[in-house]
Predict the 3D structure of the following.
Amino acid sequence: MFICPYCARNFYRAPKFRAVSHIRFLNASPNSPAIDVYLNDRLMFRNLLYKYFSDYVTIPSGTYHIKVFPSGNTVNPLIDKSLFIPPEKIFTLAAINEYPNMDLLSIEDVRHPKIPDKAFIRFGHLSPEAPTLNVVLPNGNTLFSNVSYKQITPYIPVDPGTYTIEARSSSSDERILYVPNIRLRGDRFYTIYAVGNLSKPPELQVLIPLDGNSYIGS
């Protein structure tokens, strides 16, 4: 099973005299409730369900105090961290780990020169229970190897088209995830995020968003 939430261009205005960056938020914490995300005590993302992405927003570069609460609450944050956002970057900020022991992972949607008639993909391991993984095609070709929890691989170019992938344990080669019918378009950047659990709900699956480097600043 996979979910492919394509995010819209919905940006906040930022002061012109400061360099800006673009961020979105992903709730990848298994069994978490809907969450509210505050930046410097300002509500930025509201009622974000597990497996959902926010839209990208534009913010000035700088250090931000990030707090995450169960939606509708403002006491006892699930995440309470400071994070520097450098200028002219694109980030996906992910709530990870099992609820309620959530953590924050900052993932840069790295800008790359586009190659005509190529799609770019990478793999993000956000499943706290899953072992280190190899991501392979049904013909045995390996796309990504030895990807451990919280690791995000570099992008690689592939031909546009429809793909089936398998995630296999790097140590035993056991297939733990099978994902058919992944459609990839040319001149686009995608991250295949593995989320969920192996031994208990919610089940292991992938999310395949269109990354902001596909269109922000292009």
Q: What stands out?
A: The chain has one domain: 2-214. Confidence is low (pLDDT under 50) at residues 1-17. The radius of gyration is 17 Å.
